């Protein structure tokens, strides 16, 4: 296992992140975490809304200081309370204190905003997060499931006002769901953010035959095409489909850190095999072309204009980019 710096911070995080949403049994959770730690993994990701997930995780971590514990807030603590959800300061304070109790710790390594709240000014969220950092209850912050313009706005505010910026972005990313390549991934790269890619196996659709999470009757022609391409590359490289699907996300950007969720140690062991798999450029191109994807406006329009002398002059093609 190698390590990446988390965003523009000095925090070392393993190149494969472990999601704990599927944990339901303490003994099994311990075996999975032990397998992960033995391989060098150090990031355990949960959320306040994952049922008893925080409490279960808190009960099975033996060496708290050796792990980077990440959790999230935003989702409802009390469906009958209008202030029981959202990104405002009141929900942040109550959610954070509850997470600290559940996880049996006095600080959270990475605190994620779980989803954009349209009703809370981003200034309030960023200042409240910075206060939590200054109080020592949170070390680093990130945001999940939000538009690129909002994240860019939030980090620019943080830069101007001396607040703690988002160091990480958490988004769904896999061969079947490449939407983040339009705006979110370029934005994260420009801001130096780490990208935690959840659902990198597309909820089992790219894991290969026998995945217990997939109803075969629900698969579309597009799903079958992507899975077939993954299986073909896996066969050529002597790897499993899951390993190829994970390696593809890593090949697309150095900012990407696959976030895998498993319910058995054997699944994790297979996923860890992706870290030693370097996909040839030709294999990446084949996988890219297996299913339709268009960046859309403005990305594809700007790309078409770049070599144009009408747009950038006769010397446009003689300029080497960064």
TrEMBL record:
<dbReference type="Pfam" id="PF00248">
    <property type="entry name" value="Aldo_ket_red"/>
</dbReference>
<protein>
    <submittedName>
        <fullName>Aldo/keto reductase</fullName>
    </submittedName>
</protein>
<dbReference type="InterPro" id="IPR036812">
    <property type="entry name" value="NAD(P)_OxRdtase_dom_sf"/>
</dbReference>
<dbReference type="InterPro" id="IPR020471">
    <property type="entry name" value="AKR"/>
</dbReference>
<feature type="domain" description="NADP-dependent oxidoreductase">
    <location>
        <begin position="16"/>
        <end position="290"/>
    </location>
</feature>
<dbReference type="InterPro" id="IPR023210">
    <property type="entry name" value="NADP_OxRdtase_dom"/>
</dbReference>
<dbReference type="InterPro" id="IPR050523">
    <property type="entry name" value="AKR_Detox_Biosynth"/>
</dbReference>
<dbReference type="GO" id="GO:0005829">
    <property type="term" value="C:cytosol"/>
</dbReference>
<dbReference type="GO" id="GO:0016491">
    <property type="term" value="F:oxidoreductase activity"/>
</dbReference>
<keyword id="KW-0560">Oxidoreductase</keyword>
């Amino acid at each position: 296992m190698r390590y990446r710096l988390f965003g523009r911070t000095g925090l070392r995080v393993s190149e494969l992140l472990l999601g704990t949403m599927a944990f339901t049994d303490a003994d099994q959770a311990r075996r999975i975490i032990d397998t992960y730690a033995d391989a060098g993994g150090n990031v355990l990701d949960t959320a306040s809304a994952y049922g008893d997930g925080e409490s279960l995780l808190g009960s099975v971590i033996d060496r708290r200081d050796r792990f980077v514990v990440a959790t999230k807030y935003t989702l409802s603590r009390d469906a009958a309370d209008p202030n029981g959800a959202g990104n405002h300061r009141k929900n942040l304070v109550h959610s954070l204190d509850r997470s600290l109790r559940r996880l049996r710790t006095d600080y959270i390594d990475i605190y994620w905003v779980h989803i954009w709240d349209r009703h809370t000014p981003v200034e309030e969220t960023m200042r409240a997060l910075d206060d939590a950092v200054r109080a020592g209850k949170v070390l680093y912050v990130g945001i999940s499931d939000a538009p690129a313009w909002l994240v860019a706005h939030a980090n620019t505010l943080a830069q101007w006002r001396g607040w703690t910026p988002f160091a990480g972005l958490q988004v769904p990313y896999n061969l079947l769901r490449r939407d983040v390549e339009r705006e979110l991934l370029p934005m994260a790269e420009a801001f130096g953010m780490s990208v935690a890619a959840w659902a990198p196996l597309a909820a089992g659709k790219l894991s290969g035959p026998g995945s217990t999470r997939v109803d075969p009757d629900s698969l579309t022609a597009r799903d079958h095409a992507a899975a077939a391409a993954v299986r073909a590359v896996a066969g050529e490289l002597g790897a499993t489909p899951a390993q190829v699907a994970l390696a593809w996300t890593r090949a697309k950007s150095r900012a990407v850190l696959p976030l895998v969720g498993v319910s058995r140690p054997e699944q994790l062991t297979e996923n860890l095999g992706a870290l030693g798999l370097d996909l040839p450029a030709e294999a990446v191109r084949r996988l890219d072309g297996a299913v339709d994807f268009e960046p859309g406006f403005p990305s594809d329009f700007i790309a078409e204009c770049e070599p144009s002398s009408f747009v950038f002059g006769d010397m446009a093609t003689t300029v080497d980019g960064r």
